[in-house]
Amino acid sequence: MRPLRRPRLLAPFLLTPLIAGCFASGGGDSGDGGGKGGDGDRLRVALAFPPAENLSPYGADATLLSRLGVTEGLTALDANGSAAPALAESWRRDGEKTWEFTLRDATFQDGSDVTPDAVAASLGQAVRAKPAPAALAGVGLTAKAGGERVVRVTTAEPDPVLPLRLSSPSLAILSAKAYEGKGGKTDPVGTATGPFELTKVNGAASASLDRFDDYWGGRAQASGIDARFVADGTARANALRTGELDIAEAVPVAQAASLDERTRRDTATTRTTSLLFNASSGTLKDAGLRAAARGAVDTSVFAKDVYEGYGDPGAGIYGPAVTWAEGKRSAPVGRAGAGKPGGDDVIDLATYDNRPELPEAAQVVKQQLEKAGFTVKLTVREYSRLEADALDGKFDAFVLARNTLLDTGDPVAVLASDYTCDGGFNIAQLCDKDVDRAVADAEKIADTAKRQDAAMAAEARILGSDAVVPLVHQRIITGVADSVQGVILDPYERTLVGTGTRR
Question: Which residue, 168, 188, 170, is CA-closest to 178?
Fold first, then answer.
């Protein structure tokens, strides 16, 4: 078995007012304050995933920081999935391997200036992080100051999507103070650049944030955020319903009906729930048995029944929120003929309960596979207690909710990470030379439309391996109290609150 690098799943997110208008919001104007005394009430927010790495910006916790408006990078994603300005106001390519980013006038939350040297040093820390951030998997990157306001970023090989890559929440820019702690720990408390400053972290239970009044994008309307990390989806919905919360992310579909229609927002996202089959070891190493297992799964029931209409039937790795994908999709290539499972063909199936629909989806999968003749054992744990085993290939099958454009915004990057021999998040343990070749071909293409075509050709190869069965393309339900305006409903799940979010 080849070793796998281990970037964390960015399971549930960059924030600038430049992109806030690209996404649907809860409304509201853009005055200088709201609530009491014109200074803005504090927002009470519940997030679904507790910090798994002490709020390190280099793994799964990166999206907690971006969703709360703490961190941002050189670039962001706009509504079309293109790179948009953030700390860099512009950029240009200088040869095949180097890009120059011109910085805007901005200040870190500790009062120091955002300078080319500071940005280059911060990117250097990300390059040296262990494990490497998913956005940098397989990328040899160096950064250095190139002038008074210019940062030069060079890659070992030509990277036509580097501005997209630098939008990743795991490549947030922090001040020098963030890296002064013992043991190489990176500390985002008071060292980021976003509209809200992290002031206190209470383990995996809660965090306090205050408005950062010197934010380059303007003063936030809320005076701060009291964030709670609540893995229980029912508890999040109940707290919203009883007035204890202003915003509750990822409300379970089973709880949606219990919320007043005015307090729930559903958003099509680039997140797909898929069934991954271990293609390198165990029962499903056999391509014929994978084909039999894939054929046994009726994907039509998941959107309608498990997700109660808050989703679309699985069509591929990319769903309807990736608007260009449907017209470019082709039939799977290279599928094996289905074998016949015997009574001793056991499938160890696993999923996690941070997203309440996943255990139910896994139960449906279990029943369908058993009907086809497999013996199925189901494991359900909290995600942080499951990930290492999944990446080590200890399960035969895994039900995973994965935002395909979260890490980099590049449709090819998720294919390289999740389905190639050296992929850093290859839970399917897929190692197929035809898939690797198709993904490598796509990675070389700079033209957007042609890169999309190549990504879809690679998707057809991956689906043909039967290492992944897309079950449903999710709509995320966000609970928003009547009094709250300006919540950012982001299909990429990177943002949630911004300068205009208030009550």
Answer: 188
